[in-house]
């Protein structure tokens, strides 16, 4: 009986419950399929701290080696450390992680050489088809010459590469609280910050894939509460929170107040433009703040608006030669990091910006945080398409707004905008609204929700 992979092969990765939905035997087939689809002679693998990760990663390596592919295992790592290895070694890569999902989940994020993404339209569909076929008919015949499996430590090289991209030589001493959420930030942060004038206050640095303290998902405000409290108690300059695989970084200021990822995108964009001579393309998705394209333009850059999702960001970065890209979800992409996302590099930019002047972080980011946003508001609906049609009809006749459908529906007026996008995996519509003041934002948000929720 062929395995049913429809529930675990997503748009950009593999994700499911272990061992109920997938296990090491399937991981071995994924390794063979990855080797076949990429056509590589060698690949690199890494894994997070989940209890199931080492076994799954080793099974994947066996599957690839069976087809004659040499495998370099970098072991425990963050997702952006795997991207570093893929870029620096010029090899396709596979990272075993379920990011911020609960402990019973695991997954595979795959990329081609140079950290180029593998998704539904770039190899993942073919990988799924091979695994389904082989799970029914048996694994493919081994190559005449089976590949080797060797280990390599890339943590120091990864940290040195990040530090080479941000000038932190002249920053003032800073007290920084870091909440790793028992995820891979506890592994990478101490090495990356080595040698910097940083008084590091660690929280939940013990690697524990059962997440005993809180979910490693800083996008949920409940998971920032401990960090916010500790920043205030310590009188720290800022706090950083990483998700489970440490590819996303969230920032709180000296008051423990969250700094919007849009403000961080604008701050890093200004710094990257300065580093590239005051010119370059900056990518931002359509639900980042108006502040982002404004700051980009003020600093000599060209803003390019995209759909939400890392595959669209990375595709646009490659197409336009962009130097940086940012999303509302705290994913930050850098040309000098093979167009891949790394929250750690964004964190170094924040430390450099804050440490390069005397004021507090709240004052520094105020110039990049010019509007009032609603945050993402989800509504469960019976018919996504019908709701979007009703929304479009409600605003289509108004002369003071423009409509576009790049990703869901965006309605834009002189001093506000909102976007409504359907979830790809759940019966939800996601609303984001922004305006020049809080009262206008609330009015726009509530009007849109009345239509969405009937």
Can you lay out the helices and strands and say which pair or pack?
Elements: E1 14-17, H1 24-38, E2 42-47, H2 53-66, E3 70-76, H3 79-89, E4 93-96, E5 105-112, E6 116-117, H4 120-137, E7 149-151, H5 155-164, E8 174-179, H6 185-192, E9 198-203, H7 225-234, E10 238-242, E11 249-252, E12 258-259, H8 261-275, E13 281-285, H9 291-298, E14 302-306, H10 310-320, E15 324-326, E16 332-334, H11 343-355, H12 361-366, E17 372-373, E18 377-380, H13 384-396, E19 402-404, E20 409-412, E21 416-422, E22 428-435, H14 438-453
Helix pairs in contact: 1-2, 1-4, 8-9, 8-11, 13-14
Cofactor: Mg(2+)
Family: Belongs to the phosphohexose mutase family.
Domain Alpha-D-phosphohexomutase alpha/beta/alpha: 7-135, 156-256, 266-371
Q: What's a quick, concise take on this entry?
A:
The protein is an alpha/beta fold and 454 residues long. It is 37% helix and 22% strand. The model has no long low-confidence stretch (mean pLDDT 96).
């Amino acid at each position: 009986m062929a395995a049913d992979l429809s529930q675990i092969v997503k748009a950009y990765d593999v994700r499911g419950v272990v061992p109920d939905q997938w296990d090491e035997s399937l991981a071995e087939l994924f390794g063979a399929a990855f080797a076949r689809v990429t056509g590589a002679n060698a690949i690199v693998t890494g894994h997070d701290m989940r209890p199931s990760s080492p076994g799954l990663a080793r099974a994947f390596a066996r599957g690839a080696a069976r087809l004659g592919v040499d495998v370099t295992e970098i072991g425990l790592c963050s997702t952006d450390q795997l991207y570093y290895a893929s870029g620096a070694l010029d090899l396709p890569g596979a990272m075993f992680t379920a990011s911020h999902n609960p402990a019973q989940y695991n997954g595979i994020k795959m990329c081609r050489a140079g950290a180029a993404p593998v998704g539904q339209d770039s190899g993942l569909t073919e990988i799924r088809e091979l695994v389904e076929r082989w799970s029914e008919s048996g694994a493919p015949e081994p190559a005449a010459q089976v590949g080797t499996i060797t280990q390599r430590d890339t943590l120091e090289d990864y940290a040195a590469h990040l530090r080479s991209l941000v000038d932190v030589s002249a920053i003032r001493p800073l007290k920084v609280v870091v909440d790793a959420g028992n995820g891979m930030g506890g592994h990478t942060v101490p090495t990356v910050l080595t040698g910097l004038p940083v008084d590091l206050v660690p929280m939940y640095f013990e690697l524990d894939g059962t997440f005993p303290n809180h979910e490693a998902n800083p996008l949920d405000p409940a998971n920032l509460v401990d960090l916010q409290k500790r920043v205030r108690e310590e009188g720290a300059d800022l706090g950083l929170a990483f998700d489970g695989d440490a590819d996303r970084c969230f920032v709180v200021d000296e008051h423990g107040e969250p700094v919007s990822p849009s403000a961080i995108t604008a701050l890093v964009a200004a710094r990257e433009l300065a580093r590239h001579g005051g010119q370059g393309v900056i990518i931002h998705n359509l639900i980042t703040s108006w502040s982002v394209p404004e700051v980009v333009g003020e600093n000599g850059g060209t803003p390019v608006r995209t759909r939400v999702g890392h595959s669209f960001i990375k595709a646009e970065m490659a197409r336009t030669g962009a130097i940086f890209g940012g999303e509302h979800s705290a994913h930050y992409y850098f040309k000098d990091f093979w167009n891949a996302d790394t929250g750690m590099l964004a964190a170094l930019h924040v430390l450099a910006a804050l440490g390069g002047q005397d004021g507090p972080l709240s004052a520094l980011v105020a110039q990049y945080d010019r509007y009032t946003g609603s945050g993402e508001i989800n509504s469960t609906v019976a018919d996504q398409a019908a709701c979007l049609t009703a929304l479009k009809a409600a605003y289509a006749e108004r002369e003071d707004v423009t409509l576009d459908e790049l990703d869901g529906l965006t309605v834009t007026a002189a001093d506000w905008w909102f976007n409504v996008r359907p979830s790809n995996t759940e019966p939800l519509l996601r609303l984001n609204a922004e305006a020049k003041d809080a009262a206008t934002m609330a009015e726009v948000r509530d009007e849109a929700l009345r239509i969405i929720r009937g």
